[in-house]
Amino acid sequence: MDFTFSDRMAGMNGTATREIFKLLSRPEIISFAGGLPATEALPIQAIRDISAELLGRADAYKLLQYGTTEGYPQLAEEIGKLVREFGVTVQDRSNVLVISGGQQGIDLMCKSLLNKGDTVLVEDPTYLAALQIFNSYEARVVGMRSAADGIDLQDMEEKIKLHKPKLMYLVPTFSNPTGKTYTAENRKGIARMTAQYGVPVLEDDPYARLRFSGEKVDALYSFAQDDNVVYMASFSKILSPGLRVGGIVGNASLIRKMAIGKQGTDLHTSSLAQMITAEYCRRGLLQPSVQASLPLYRTRKEAMMQAISRYMPQEFVHTDPEGGLFIWGEFAGCDIDTAALLPQAVQRNVAYIQGQVFYADGRGRNTIRLNYSNASCEQIEIGIKALGQFFKEVLHNR
Ligand SMILES: Cc1ncc(COP(=O)(O)O)c(C=O)c1O
């Protein structure tokens, strides 16, 4: 049958990239395309022990039973404790919603706030899968100019005045895709301006705990001058993406709307996953396991930085993140199309993500995102060497 798809899905094609990603499962391919936490950082034994103990208790049925949409109270409490570390204070239980990962939080925020044609302001470039959600709500996505210290505030103000956005979406700490972190000053400016113009902001913060160098910066939420900022945390990058657990903190009436939206999506986040996550936190295991993973991330990032300086063409200018999972680079002044070149790179057994997909308006043809968390230092050396040789040939033969 030829299905007639909804207007909201019309602009959403799987893209050629998905076809290429099928090839990435070939063992000889070194992929810097993903965004997975290190396999070594997944605490298998602890989760095994906790699961066995919880399932051995007299009230084990609770793990396998329906729960409330708002989430398991002990988990909401643990989320409240965790976010406090970044200056995010939870007034009341009605300010927290447990979500099935940050991806769901973005979706619920859109479901609650956006009508067709509404404008969402994002940093250019921003998280690809958020752009896909905005498109599925038929929103108009407008990119704001990125600056070294965060967002260009002048550009932000002009775009707020011009587009009257219904939502602003930001990843201010170790951004996906750039790895960049906004300064406290820039966050203050964003907080002031969005409060002044009454713009709701979703602060998506899955990476803040993965800091392996530099000084901690408090969440944008902590600088908020109104309750227009909503803060979102996820356990995906610090515990396990497979558990699908996160939390969102903000204005109670907005949280309530999102909970109603969540009922229609999945009723509630997996009881089993919530209780395992809450118990992992309650036992004080999260902080030490994240700490223990940081040297691995630092080492891999440094291995990639060194390989880049050794092998990539000198036109390649790139970020040097203090945490998170990604390095972002641009072939400065080069008219190349990294999307069109990707299949050839994959033929040489190395993969990246073309940067263009992270832009609201399809710019960034000469940019790429590289992930360093899920490859060994040896693979990073071999993969970046192959990539460097490839791009040197491309630039030479133009
Ligand atoms: C910025 C950002 N937000 C949200 C997500 C989704 O994560 P999850 O739904 O696993 O919490 C990711 C995953 O890569 C991300 O990078």
Description:
The chain is α/β, with parallel strands linked by helices and 398 residues long. It has two domains: 7-43 and 288-396, Aspartate Aminotransferase, domain 1; 59-282, Aspartate Aminotransferase, domain 2 (3-Layer(aba) Sandwich). The chain has helices spanning 7-10, 15-23, 44-56, 61-64, 73-84, 102-113, 128-136, 153-163, 184-197, 220-223, 252-266, 271-282, 286-311, 338-347, 377-396, and strands at 30-31, 96-99, 119-124, 140-147, 150-151, 167-170, 201-204, 229-234, 246-249, 316-318, 326-331, 350-351, 353-354, 367-371. Strands 2-9-8-7-6-3-4-5 form an eight-stranded mixed sheet, with helices on both faces. It has a four-stranded antiparallel sheet with strand order 10-11-14-13. Helix 6 (102-113) packs across helix 11 (252-266). The longest helix has 26 residues, at 286-311. It starts with 6 loop residues before the first helix and ends with a helix. Residues 35, 101-103, 127, 171, 176, 204, 206, 234, 236, 241, 246 line the site of pyridoxal-5'-phosphate. Pyridoxal-5'-phosphate binds next to helix 6.
